[in-house]
Structure formats: C-alpha cells, structure tokens
Amino acid sequence: MAKKKPIAIVVHGGAGPDSEHIHKNKKGYEEGLREAVDTGYKILEEGGSAVDAVEAAVKKLEDNPLFNAGRGSALNANGEVEMDAAIMRGSDQSSGAVALIRNIRNPISLAKAVMMNTKYRFLGDMGALEYAKQLDIRLEPSSYFITEHQYDAFSKKREEEFTSSDRIGMDQLNARMHGTVGAVALDQEGMVAAATSTGGTENKKMGRIGDSCIIGVGCYANNKTCAISGTGDGELLMKNIIAYDISALMEYKGLTLQKACETVVLERTHKQEGDVGVIGVDAAGHIAMVFNSDRMHRGWKTNSRQQGIEIYDKK
Known about the structure:
Helix content is 37%, strand content 24%. The strands form two sheets. An eight-stranded mixed sheet has the order 4-3-2-6-5-1-11-12. Strands 7-8-9-10 form a four-stranded antiparallel sheet. It is globular and about 55 Å long. A hairpin with a 5-residue loop joins β2 and β3. It is of the alpha+beta class. The chain has helices spanning 20-24, 26-45, 50-63, 107-117, 125-135, 142-145, 148-163, 170-173, 234-240, 242-253, 257-268, and strands at 8-16, 83-89, 95-101, 122-124, 181-186, 192-198, 219-221, 226-232, 276-282, 287-291, 295-302, 307-312. The longest helix has 20 residues, at 26-45.
C-alpha cells in the first residue's frame, strides 16, 4: 500500500497583546479560525494546490470583521483603510504583493493575480487598484471596511493623542496595536505556499507599509525548506527579516522547522523590543507555531491527525 502523502495547513489571526475584546469574542475568533482551516484543508484534501489553499483560507479571514485584514482592517490616522498582502509559492519562489490598497474586498486575491498574471512582484496604491478593476476583482465601498470595533479603537487612540499631557506621538501610542492574518500549506505534490494579509496598525501614518507584504519578512516559501507567515510588530519583523531567516537556518544550518522558528522568535528577537509570531510548514508535513506575545490566534490541520484551534499559550 502506497504511503499517504502529507498535506497540512496552518493559519494565524495575529499575535500581540491580550485584550478585553478578544476575551469577549473568543468563540467568534475560534469559529473564524476553524472555518479558514477547514476551507483550506478541503482544497488540499481534494488535490488542490497549496497556493489555492492559502488564498482561500486567508480570504475567509479577510471577510471576517473580527480580524485585522480585509473587512476588519484598522483605520489609519486619516480614518481610512490601507491594506497590504503577499503570497508566495515554494516550487519556484514566485510571489505577488500589494500595498496601500483600498476598496479591494480580498487583497490576497489581488496579490495572487500579480503573481500569476504579471511580470511584476509588487504593485501599490492606485496602480494596484487600477489593475484590480481590469481583472474585475471584487470591490467594496469604503464603509464596508469600517467596523464598529476598529472605529472605536481609532477614536480611542485619537482621544489619547489629543488629551495626553505630554503630547505622546501617535507612533508611540500605536506601538502595541497590530494585527495580521496568514496561512501556510503543503499540498499533495509536495509544494509549500504562504500568504499574509493585514489592515496595518490603528492610527498608523498614511502611507505606512508593514511587514505583511514584504517577501522574506512577513511571507516566504521555498520547497527546500519551509513556508512561513509572520505577525506582530511589523517594524521588528522587518528589522530581523524574520521569514527568510527561518528558511536560511534550515537550509544552511540544518535546523528543523521548529528549532529554526524558536531560534528566530525566542532567541534572536528580544521580547522587550516587541511582539513576534510565526506559523510554518515544511515539505515533510511538519508544522510550527511560535510566538513571544500574550497570544497568537492560530489553527491547524494535517492528514497525520494533528488539528486544533488555540489563541493563548498551552500551559
């Protein structure tokens, strides 16, 4: 009897500080993660590609207003939504990314279109929007993206800025407010893929680009090593080139996926600098979920009977 080929998917809904909002909506977050995992896994189970699986999983999270991507995106300092996303396949390291986009219901699908249909790797702002219109990618009015929770967070931060006795800058106020969604997968052909999408940080400066859309930082995939999606403080992930560093440790040092993730997140990154979390999968079907923060929303499923949904660290 032929040995069953491994398939696996892992998703995340962001890493960072705990909050009352998370506790209040814990069941909703868990249901959202489970739906994303099941959607991606079904594609893998039916012989679909890892690229299609991560796109489908991330789209589910982008459509869920609880997560900071797509519909639940954070508002920038002008009270507007600017979104970033990237996708990468491990067979040939092809990738696509978009930044500072508006009105796109599913930024990850636009990133995938850039990868599949253009000679470019990265499109931003109005150019990306015009390309989306050419492809008939679904658009939504600006009001679709403004959820009550994100508007309340925006208003609270604005109030803190205007009433602070020492005039704290918005960058300082925003230091620990962040969120991202992502997915990594392994398909029956042995290909890995990664996808990451975000609405950024509350009250971010207009035009700020985070780690999520940067290949090698918030998103990376290589069949020789692994697929990684990162989350946390974007500037910290950029500083440490998190995703590629994990892959490099596996390729050049021979570390396992789990050890490489732990080395980068728990040893090379200093907790006092900020929050970092990663999810990963390798070509053998091993998965990893490592974070240094209060929580990381995550879900996983493999055909070796591993599956689960977690938000906090397992004690």
